[in-house]
Amino acid sequence: MTSWFTAIFAAIGAALAGGVFTYMTNRNQLRIQARHDYDVALRDLRLPHYQELFHLTGAIPREWWPSSALAKRDVLALREQFHNWYFGGRAGGLFLSEDARTAYSALQSELQEAARHLASDEDLMSIEDIRKVRERGSALRHRLSSDLGVAEQAHENWTLPSSPVHPTSLTESP
């Protein structure tokens, strides 16, 4: 009778252990799936706002020649365009990640500082201010790309396109 009781107790213990293990595994998988679904939904919500902001940064080219320096009125107008994007009807700033918000604020501060250095609306930005604004604009663009994951190589090999085999390579050579 003792061996029969031990076998039943072992079976119940194994079933409980298996149930607990299954519960913990499924719970972790559900948590991972929920986080993934949230990240995908957030990325999809961010995309149009980030595209619009990325487009606005086009006024701050990667290479800015001193001959194309902005006047104070242009710097202030650009700063206002960014402000309107952030707080406007579509509330683009609401969708920025913390790092993107930091980069955005740094650009806005740099534009304000560049405008502060100019006495009249006709005065042009200095070379140093051009460099600082360009660096801040570039940092913001990089952050936006990074947030969306568009600057990365595909993570899975099967997502990379493969070259089809050329028909002539299939025939035997003489």
- Helix/strand order: HHHH
Number of helices: 4
Number of strands: 0
End-to-end distance, in Å?
Answer: 82 Å
Write a structural description.
By secondary structure, the protein is mainly α. It has a domain at about 45-150. Helix content is about 65%, strand content about 0%. The protein is built from four helices and no strands. It has helices at about 1-55, 70-85, 100-115, 125-150. Helix 1 runs antiparallel to helix 4. The protein is rod-shaped.
List keywords for this structure.
mainly alpha, 64% helix, 174 residues, rod-shaped
What's the topology here?
Blueprint: H1 2-56, H2 72-87, H3 98-116, H4 127-148
Helix pairs in contact: 1-2, 1-4, 2-3, 3-4
